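subagent[fold] <- orchestrator: predict structure for attached chain, return tokens only, no commentary.
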Amino acid sequence: MTEMPAITVKSIAGQPSVYLLPATSSQFKNAVKNEPPAFEYVRRMAGLHPYSVVLMNESDKDIWAYAVRWSGKDPEGKDISFSRVESNFSTGFPDASLLPGGLLQAGSTQAVIPLIHPLFITPGPRSWDNEKSKAINDLLSYLRRLVNITITLDAVVFADGLAIGDDPEGRIFSWRATLEAGKEVARVMAYGDVATVRSELETIAEAGRKEAENTTTMFFAPSSAASYETVLRALRSHLAQLQLWFMKTRAVDLEQFRPANNNRVFPSIHR
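subagent[fold] -> orchestrator:
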């Protein structure tokens, strides 16, 4: 049997109420056991549990976004790194059931499992196909080769917009731009008839279409040295295109959609 690599878990310094605990902790086992039926996939990924953590939110505020990063070295000494990034801003969906809300409520916990494509899974009943089983086995083989692994809580955003963490990959930068872009697109959707809304969305979409085609610019701006304005323009375009697609393919009734749209909350992310 292959020996497990040494695993170190790191939380955010000076933040005693929000932190990670390893998979060997009783809190992790309880978090997996208590996941609701919609997150049944957490239990089905038992092979990945030794490489996972539990995020503890003992603060008095809901968490709306977080980034957890796995880093280490392979036997050849090569550095590896990948992240699990979650947010619940719902900026792109014209649906009352998808309003922003607590991704991790105050006083609760969440098991955080290393997921890479095609293991990204939407909560809810879904088929478990051979592609996912193969992906789990491939990821396990990869993780078992590593000499050591450090699992780090890089960034957290609370419901009031407060952001914490060293954030070496610039996730807070991207989340702030996502919320600002979402707020601007929601403003366009709030008033006017269908033709006016569509025209304004098309203008926004076209203004940042070139940047929006570059997913690196959109979601990993610091690593591509893009400015905040460039990322914001790209995200505005992306969200405008998404709304146009919904209006075209789902025949969105603006008057029915507007109460949900106008009740959305877009906190200003700040340190």
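orchestrator: received. Logging for downstream: The chain has two domains: 6-164, 171-262. The radius of gyration is 20 Å.
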